[in-house]
Amino acid sequence: MATRERPRRVTIADVARHAGVSTTAVSKVLRSAYGVSPAMRERVKAAIEELGYRPHAAARAMRGRTFTIGVLLPDLRNPFFPDILDGLSEQLAGTDYQVIMVQGGPDVTAETRAIDALVDRQVDGILMIAPRVRRVRLEDVAAQMPTVVLGLHEKSALYDVVHDDDELGAELVVRHLIGLGHRRIAHIGYTPGSRERAVGVLDAIRAETYARVMREHGLQSQIAVARAAYTEEAGYRGARELLERSPRPTAIFAGADLAALGALRALHEAGLSVPADVSLAGYDNTRLAALSSISLTSVDQDGAVMGRTAGRLLLERIEGRTSSVRFSVTPSLVPRRSTGPPAPEA
Amino acid sequence: MATRERPRRVTIADVARHAGVSTTAVSKVLRSAYGVSPAMRERVKAAIEELGYRPHAAARAMRGRTFTIGVLLPDLRNPFFPDILDGLSEQLAGTDYQVIMVQGGPDVTAETRAIDALVDRQVDGILMIAPRVRRVRLEDVAAQMPTVVLGLHEKSALYDVVHDDDELGAELVVRHLIGLGHRRIAHIGYTPGSRERAVGVLDAIRAETYARVMREHGLQSQIAVARAAYTEEAGYRGARELLERSPRPTAIFAGADLAALGALRALHEAGLSVPADVSLAGYDNTRLAALSSISLTSVDQDGAVMGRTAGRLLLERIEGRTSSVRFSVTPSLVPRRSTGPPAPEA
Predict the structure, then answer these.
(1) How far is CA B116 from its chain centroid?
(2) Quick one: CA dihedral A303, A309, A313, A315, positive or negative?
(3) Which residues on chain A are in Cβ contact (under 8 Å) with B265?
(4) Which regions of chain A are under pLDDT 70?
(5) Exposed, middle or buried by CB within 10 Å (0-12, 13-18, 19+), for A290?
(6) Residue B77 to chain A, least CA–CA distance (Å)
(7) What's the number of domains chain A is made of?
């Protein structure tokens, strides 16, 4: 099998290292931003020339438009992402833009390769959904092409961010369960990797908010988190882990509907009924949650609006906007039959 | 919004028209196949030169490898396709190849644009899953790059095909329902469009097989088909249409699990229980079918094996194989709780 190595793309981090300055300084030079000394500008420009780094504007001018938007999806199985893609397609309808997608895969290395594949395909703009790579990688991409990041809460001068108010969403779920009378409420979600960003990602915010609301209600001793990715399989394993506790939780808040489906499988296997034995809630209000045989309490964050907005922001950047914006969707709770009052203690 | 037109890519059909020969003749010349007269070769080569058509080998030599495999997905929401993609990724693991994807969209025009977007991105090979465009378009792509088509049963000299034995799969379902005692068995599936291929596609084969098995059991008067795409929404509408019949069907065979989920929603809304009032079966044996709260009888066609095989065939073609192969998976029935004997007639 062919395994010839491609030459590694020169990154903004390489330029910064070569010039002995910060990546922020390089970004400023690239954007011709205010507050860069002439000496700094010279050093950075020399490093760019020596390394052959092709910043966004120059590269685009060289190649012309491709009328392609690249999208990074973390996982093809999550039924929330097609909602986002539908919104994006709706926004792009009537334009010449086509969407191409890559799947991020299970770890940061795979995600980095997937992002590189998009960049190499010379897309005109890129939408990264819940990326796990470090901020410097995102800024490197954003320095090369119009970039919108969905699901991160950190602002950047180089890219736009679109997210829902994950704090509010998680609060709505935990308060709903507490209001029903639950105290032993467990959470499935957020598994930080060693090379991944630790703050600002949607799953970390949901997990932190869960713990905060529990503490605010004097339930700190009941906090139980199964660290698991937002996949069906991880949700299954996470629920099995939580159900081994004694006493077991009376309610489980899974950080995503897909993980909740896995938890549902674990609950059924354990012979537990929902919500009589254990209440279960998810997040994303996917179409699966609405199926009457599942009827999962969830949080609606309107993926179509997020996708439409991301598309609009990308088109604006392609047309020349360089200032960064942040767009937040206000989520709402959709209570269904999977949550109810806890059974009386035996 | 930018709507500048790209120059249309010269196709194999253009070359054939210009040279006044068939597309098959052009393909033969491109492949240096046996049985082409020198005069024919000259005419085709002149047309290729005049139109600037870049056949696969020449184009690839010009640009070198991109180490990218392009995948056409009909629909991001269908939970069967990630099984295929998982198999493909497994096959490509350890190579430098990355997968980029496009979504085919609702009609042939959208699908054609999506395919063009992949071709324009200069992938090294392309996997088209259940494409709806006419054969000439597929052959046009296959003349330019290594191509594997999944879900079509028609052989081609230019591309490989991977499919399951859809006839056997559909037979297994209909015989299963007849064996349980059902006679009023309805089908949801196959909706031919005016510009689409009418034969050889998996959904047409499943629908035809359903009708054939019904006839073979003397049930031709009971044949009822709701023509609907393999989507949740179409399955929902299809089931509503079927439930308006009097007497209503006692069993529904949806051509795909995703359509069956839509049918399940319609059944629940109508206050009907599964399988007591209506039995329901799908196709694809997706993870959703296995969820115990859904427990859908379905047909397993092992998408991972299909994806791995498609990946292997693409790599072989990239390495130089030009002969065409066909790979068929033998499906099996997975009976679950959604099918049972019909209720005694009132």
Answers:
(1) 18
(2) positive
(3) 291-292
(4) 1-9, 30-35, 54-64, 192-199, 346
(5) middle
(6) 6
(7) 3
Write down the ipTM of this complex: 0.79
Task: Please give the residue range of the domain that contains residue A135.
Answer: 68-164+302-329
Cα distances from A56 to residues A31, A34, A126, A141, A315, in angstroms, run 10, 19, 12, 9, 15
Segment B258-314, tens digit of pLDDT: 999 999 999 999 999 999 999 999 999 998 899 888 999 999 999 999 999 999 999
Q: What's the pTM?
A: 0.80
Whether B309 and B235 map to the same domain: the answer is no
Q: Amino acid identity, residue B70?
A: G
Cα separation, A275 vs A281, in Å, equals 10
Task: Please tell me if residue A85 touches chain B, with a CB cutoff of 8 Å.
Answer: yes
* Whether residue B176 sits in one domain with residue B263: yes
Average confidence score pLDDT of chain A: 88
Q: Cβ–Cβ contacts within 10 Å for residue B323, how many? A: 9
- A127-166 residues touching B, CB cutoff 8 A: none
User: Phi and psi for A132 in degrees, rounded to 5?
Assistant: -110, -5
Do A156 and A270 fall into the same domain? Answer: no
Mean pLDDT on B69-92: 94
**Residue pLDDT, tens place only, A164-181:** 999 999 999 999 999 999
Residue A106: partners with Cβ closer than 8 Å, 6 or more residues away? none
